[in-house]
Specification:
alpha/beta, Rossmann fold, 2 domains, six-stranded parallel beta sheet, binds nicotinamide-adenine-dinucleotide
Length: 378
């Protein structure tokens, strides 16, 4: 793989930046300045109690896309920090998936089990509409396609609707499988996973389909989930072995595939990991960026989460563009080449893979900024 020159403009460590962004006393514009977010919008509807925040991180590549999270936050500041962090993540994910989309996200503060959904989501739709297409929304944690139908009554800038492309998990799982094959290629010289042992944490929507691909490939599976019925299904269908949820990090395997929770690569799990590859679909797998540095020092090949799990975003993009599911599937297959590229750069420049991915994403966004004559933000 030919070498590519990538440049970082960071003047301080990512963890230090993150601490500055998390600082509760920081003013809103201080928080925006840490990662150069473009815009934050607050909207309040006293009649139904809607309190929503939309964050737009970067629109150099296209309109900001990101789902709507409906969650109870202890403080408004917690909600703001979450939406800023998630919006920035979407910029990087879209950039690395090769999509012409920017990064944004919205949070609705409140009880996500409320029955007053029409009023809340119509208010959210008016909020989205006020941004005139700079932000496009879809479902996320705490929301569903039927909630998006209420949003649709007020704005056309919403996808993930009832009767749309539906569950993105099969596409996400296929992209994750291809990304895992790319890791195997770098690690073992062949992208075949036949005979390799893969430990899968979480066999819900994505984990189930990932196990299916791995089983068809001839991999051995060790799985866990807090839901016994889901474990039983993959044990019965794919001949997987199962372990208790707190044992999965320490099993002897070739690959660890986190497909449940975030922050699973942390001080505790690093002490017990016995694999040579970490490649799974979960978001925000590194508890802190320093844990990505530690994986690199331990010689473990890590597929950066937002690169390998971008199949879900690719699925929504296909719906936006009016393309078919076959296109989404093929595009998700390109994750194989992207992971190879990230790992090649990481290897040549002796940097952790998550940093190589960040730099590639930043390079693509800054090229778009230059070609559009926009201020340099990223
Ligand atoms: P899901 O809720 O269907 O599956 C998650 C599974 O993890 C569930 O079966 C749950 O019981 C299990 N789980 C929860 N806590 C656990 C624990 N402590 N130990 C073991 N298992 C546990 O979610 P999903 O859609 O399959 O998504 C899985 C992960 O992938 C999430 O982190 C999600 O953010 C990420 N992701 C999903 C998509 C997608 O298309 N669905 C796209 C990108 C990223």
């Amino acid at each position: 793989m030919p070498s590519e020159r990538i440049v970082t403009r960071r003047v301080t460590t990512p963890d230090a930046l993150q601490r500055a962004a998390d600082e509760p006393a920081a003013e809103v514009f201080d928080k925006l300045s840490v990662y150069h977010h473009e815009q934050v919008s607050y909207w309040f509807d006293p009649e139904c109690g809607y309190r929503g925040i939309i964050a737009i991180h970067n629109t150099a590549l296209g309109p900001a896309l990101g789902g709507t999270r409906f969650w109870h936050y202890d403080t408004d500041d917690d909600a703001l920090r979450d939406v800023l962090r998630l919006a920035r993540g979407m910029t990087y994910k879209a950039a690395m998936a090769g999509l012409d989309l920017g990064g944004g996200k919205s949070v609705v503060i409140g009880d996500h089990c409320t029955k007053k959904r029409e009023a809340i989501f119509r208010a959210h739709g008016r909020h989205v509409e006020s941004l005139a297409g700079r932000y496009i929304t879809a479902e996320d944690v705490g929301t569903s396609p039927s909630d998006m139908e209420w949003v649709r009554k007020e704005t056309s800038h919403v996808f993930g609707l009832v009767g749309g492309f539906g569950d993105p998990s099969p596409v996400t799982a296929f992209g994750t499988f291809r990304g895992m094959q790319a890791c195997a290629k770098v690690r073992y010289g062949s992208d075949s996973l036949t005979g390799k042992t893969v430990a899968v944490q979480g066999v819900g929507h994505v984990g189930y389909y990932l196990c299916k691909h791995l089983h068809e490939e001839g991999a051995k599976l060790i799985v866990t989930d807090i839901d016994d019925d889901k474990v039983k299904r993959v044990v019965d269908e794919f001949g997987a072995a199962s372990v208790a949820p707190d044992e999965i990090h320490g099993v002897a395997a070739d690959v660890f595939a986190p497909c449940a929770l975030g922050a699973v690569i942390n001080d505790d799990t690093l002490k017990v990991l016995k694999v040579s590859i970490v490649a799974g679909a979960a978001n925000n797998q590194l508890h802190r960026e320093r844990h990505g540095d530690a994986l690199n020092e331990m010689g473990i090949t890590y597929a950066p989460d937002y690169v390998i799990n971008s199949g879900g975003l690719i699925n929504v993009n296909a719906e936006i563009e009016g393309w078919n599911l076959e296109w989404a599937h093929d595009k998700a297959g390109e994750i194989y080449d992207t992971i190879l590229r990230v790992l090649a750069i990481a290897g040549e420049q002796k940097i952790p893979s998550y940093r190589a991915a960040d730099h590639l994403a930043e390079q693509r966004v800054s090229q778009a900024e230059r070609s559009r004559g926009l201020p340099h933000r990223i």
